[in-house]
Amino acid sequence: METTRQKKIAGILQNDLAVLLLSLLKNSGKSNILSSVTKVKVSPDLSLAKIYVSVFPVLHADSILKLIGKNKNSIRRSLGELIKNQVRRIPDLAFYIDDSLEHIDKIEAALKGVEDPIKNSTLLNKRKSI
């Protein structure tokens, strides 16, 4: 369970990293790509932060993650300048792609009847043959 301090640090990191990632995309010439920080999880000792980034369109997610990985040190340095008065130690940053939007789209498609998950189920087909 997260402590109150972890939640506060995660909120601060989420807001500031969203701004930093937008400026990184703008400076690298990646236009027409939307990115947002959807979730931040901070370790109990506040030394590691897992940042989940959502990218739209999803096709560019891997290239954006590589761009963020190349610039991770400069992002951490800029983050340190922003939050230096609020934390003692800047946590190490680990970036991950948040694919929850893609998962939601698959569920919505199944609910709309585009694809019937029951008919395509291999378990159900095995039961019918018994």
Features:
3-stranded mixed sheet, single chain, GMP Synthetase, Chain A, domain 3, alpha+beta, globular, disordered C terminus, 2 domains
Describe the structure.
This protein is of the alpha+beta class. It has two domains: 95 residues, K homology (KH) domain (GMP Synthetase, Chain A, domain 3), CATH 3.30.300.20; 31 residues, no CATH class. 52% of the residues lie in helices and 18% in strands. It contains five helices and three strands. The protein has a three-stranded mixed beta sheet, covered by helices on one side. Strand 1 and strand 2 form a beta hairpin. Helix 1 packs across helix 3. The longest helix has 24 residues. The N and C termini lie far apart (46 Å). The C terminus is likely disordered.
- Give the SSE order as H and E letters: HEEHHEHH
What CATH first level of the largest domain would be assigned?
A: Alpha Beta
Biggest sheet, strands in spatial order?
A: 1-2-3
Question: How many extended strands?
Answer: 3
Superfamily at the CATH H level of the largest domain? Answer: K homology (KH) domain
Which ranges are low-confidence, i.e. pLDDT below 50, for 5 or more consecutive residues? 124-130
- Strand content range: 15-25%
SSE diagram, text form:
Elements: H1 4-27, E1 34-42, E2 48-56, H2 61-70, H3 72-83, E3 92-97, H4 100-112, H5 122-129
Helix pairs in contact: 1-3
